Amino acid sequence: MYVDDVPVRDPLEVVFVRSPHAHARIRSVGLDAARAMPGVVAVYGAADLGELNRWLPLLFPHPHLTEPRTQLPLATDKVFYAGQIIAMIVAVDRYAAEDARERVELDLEPLPVVVDLEAAVADGADQVHDDMAGNVSGHIVQTVGDPDAAFRDAPVILKHRYILERSAAMPMETRGMVAEWDARQEQLTLWNATQVVHPLRAGLAQFYGIPESRIRVVAPDTGGGFGVKGFFMYPEEVLVPLAARDLRRPVKWIEDRVEHFTASHHERTQIHDIEIAATEDGVVLGLRDEFLLETGAFVPYGLELGRITAGQVGAAYRIPNIHVGFRGVYTNTVVCTPYRGAGRPHMCFVTERALDDVARAVGIDPFEVRRRNFVGDHEFPYRRDGLVTADGYTVILDSGSYFEQLKMLEDALDVPAFRDRQAAAGGTSKLLGLGMACYVESTGGGPYEGAHVVVEPGSGTVRVTTGFTDQGQSHKTTLAQVAAERLGADLADVVVEFGDTAAFRWGIGTYASRGAVQGANAVDRAAETVRAKALRLAANMLEVAEADLTIEDGRVSVKGSPDSSVTLRQIAKASKPDRYGFDTDQAALAAFGPARPRELSDQGPALPGNDAPGLEASEFFSSQNATWSSGSHAAIVEVDTETGEARILRYVVVHDCGKVINPLIVDGQVIGGVAQGVGGSLYERLAYDPQGQIQNASLMDFLMPYATEVPGVELLHLETPTPLNALGVKGTGEGGAIPVPAVTAAALEDALSQFDVIIRRMPLDPEEILDLIAASNPQGGEAET
Amino acid sequence: MKPPPFDYHAPDSLDEAKSLLRDAGDEGKLLAGGQSLVPLMNLRLARPAVLIDLRRVPGLDGIEANGEVRIGAMARHGRIQHSAELQSRVPMLTEAMRHVGHPAIRNRGTLGGSIAHADPSAEAPLVALALGAELIAASSGGNRSIPGDGFFDGPFMTVLADDEVLTEIVFPAAPAGSGWGFHEVARAHGDFALVAAAAVAVVEDGRLRDVRLAIAGAADRPTRIGAAESALEGAAWDEKARAHLGGVVRDAVSPASDSHASADYRKSVAAALAVRALDDATRQAIAG
Known about the structure:
The complex is a heterodimer. By secondary structure, chain A is α+β, with helices and mostly antiparallel strands. Helices cover 27% and strands 26% of the residues of chain A. In chain A, the strands form eight sheets. A seven-stranded mixed sheet of chain A has the order 3-5-1-12-9-10-11, sandwiched between helices. By secondary structure, chain B is α+β, with helices and mostly antiparallel strands. Chain B has helices at 14-24, 37-42, 77-82, 84-89, 91-97, 103-108, 111-117, 123-130, 226-232, 239-252, 263-287, and strands at 7-9, 28-31, 50-53, 63-66, 68-72, 134-139, 142-147, 152-154, 157-158, 165-171, 178-186, 193-204, 207-216, 223-224. The radius of gyration of chain B is 19 Å and the shape is globular. The N and C termini of chain B lie far apart (51 Å). The chains are: A alpha+beta, B alpha+beta. Chains A and B meet through helix 3, helix 8 and helix 20 of A and helix 11 of B.
């Protein structure tokens, strides 16, 4: 059941009046004509909200985020991006609400618009927020080792600019929510396509000034999130419940696709200025990176994206001396918050392209330059003191086997055979190229997740409940596997539930490649506790020592005498002695109680002293540092030099997320990530014009790759379990997406090597590829982008 | 993305459709699959007051191939694409259908709907033009046949009058000894073409005859490249001709720039695809 299917009675539907201008002063908002339209129940302007039109929260304050700005639910004096909400129309259905929207009279006075990231930081730039100086919200710098010393004596120093452009997650299901306010119980229920039910509950409680216990947030089945639903306290998330409370009717808002382009957050634009210092052998001595992080018009998510990017610096390489700094920059555009990869593709692109630059400068091949810089297997844990992840952990690469990974990739590719094919295609208009890149990914971010595991006394069902959510990651299967294996239950008996604050009190959410690390380990711990209790009770019931028992397929039996056994269901039943024998099968056991000796079943206490009834436990897992997944990818592309079309013919992934719980699910995650990476390499670019209008705000114009554009992915797994959790797992949700732009750029460059093309920005479209070829100079020199 | 109010009719006969259309004047719009019109209505970019759905009108989806090939305007793209008869009789059309959207779109979209919609980048209008199709239009006043060459009148505009229904598309039999080529560059498979080129040619004694070359996406309507056709008449298809054709096409087209590609890019690609389409056409014509 998706949020649009939630069966509430006669829901009203919301349509938002959004700013057509990217930056404007609001002279007046005329709502009377809209209010008079048939089917309209209520129209809310900023004044109608009263004191509830208060600043939405800054989720991540930071000492160096010196100029934080967040928005109001409804814009009052000014609008700061095209799409910002000015008013809310509630009507009997969306048709009526959209008809009414056409009657709203907006009088807006356009103001200078800031779109270009570099222009935004230039002296005298127009300002997004005129109550601060410039457009920079904060500047965060971190240093590892002594970069100045490293650069002082380095024989090779390269300096380049690298850019990834703006894109968006674009899940198949847009955002949406249904709010119902039960006035008698003073209870708000919000069904919401969100990745974070508990944080949203807390945020709403704070916003409305009511206890968390009066709010229930439920994420039903969700059709993709990829980060855009991991942000919370979007303005709609406070406005829709507000209407439900005010109107005493269920109120529903399902974002439409056109709206999604400006109502939901974007990601990606960063401009990196890199200096890299190396020996003449291609060993990197130091790296300096100062980058611009586009945040859009506000920073509700703080500078977390930039902090994640910065935390990946150095990647799988020793690089002992690092300077990494970035500035958050406001523009009159939609707010940017994490989208799958979450700042990591940027640092990967920068690092990998810079390494390719080093390889070219010193005359070695791309594989070799990586081998000369990899952290060796014996060097783990590898520390970068001075550098922290966005979660505040010192960067310590926990485990990996980068040399082995690269070798697996090289072997799978058969590079010499490819070079023959490439040479054979050399004289045609369809050139071939091979590119590769490696990545590491900090996964399993904090702070914690929890899980409740219970063996239900009647049915024997093992019910696992947790606080995080699912947007298609198959958590039900993964968590059931973990619970079944740890508990010794039959997989078919395990049921998993999540995404409902009423089902489990504590939780954070699903994002940042953290579900398996935090969530599965919490399930593992809860299952272990239940297992221990089951053994303790069974030992008493079977009158043997715990050490003599084994659990398999939901049955506890005495080692060596399998006939002497009880099922988990029977233990669960016995553990909650009801006094009553209405379950005929179980009557005898019910009367027993686990504390009663078998031969005296009608005597003695039913439970051990002060023991809790039931076979259940809640446990938590809180990681103490990031687990670092890694991978090496390569692509073979074909470039049509007459049309500029690029096609990926072959894509090979070697992937290491530690212990793999379910290979099929991990494969799906990686392949899906690669698909998004292909989009970010060759297709997807949210194109703002200088007036701050998106030029391609529909799926007819914003190009997402289809099955026809995504290559088959050849997947190889390497398992280096992390020492940081009992399951040995690392996160896998984002890795597939991270290196693809770097891989594709390298492959295009290789295909176009006869034109001396150098690629330092992505994505590239066919016309840009043709332009690169046209700009090439066969007499020497580089055609750069 | 909900349309403003409109009246909806689904007539059971062509006569009824024609009279509804006449009565609606310039407020009426025919629905023939809805794969372009309905999104435009949802975006409130098209606001017809009266929508006349042709889906129940009998006799509009026939496919006949006796000498010439007659295809009813309501024949769905998917059915055309998979028709074995059409694959052998008008292979350029069935090949072009592969590039029209995706299977779900092709299962609803119709040949007549696409041609009447006259998107300058769409495949069906291009093929109709390249193959010299006749478009049959019906109104309360009677029927008329409009040559493909005179049918398209600008972006999303045709010479159809407000009260005319496009009922049939008639493709002439392919000339003996002819070959064809169709090439398209789209940003992703199934998207509208950035540029597409369609060519037909006969080869006699190593010389090109009866060349028809048309380009989509490089002007405000699908366009025949007359200068190229006459330049190639009687010429051998050799390196010199290939190089010359590119230049002629580049000069002949007048594309616009948009967010997907510049005019200059479209010119370059039009030139490249025209050459490829002629490559295929001559190869086939020679192979018989």
